[in-house]
Amino acid sequence: MYYAPGEHPPPHFHVYYAEHTATVDIQSCELSKGSLPKKQLKLVLAWAELHQEELIADWSLLMNGDEPFKIQPLQ
Question: In what order do the strands lie in the sheet with 12-17?
Answer without folding.
Answer: 12-17, 20-25, 30-34
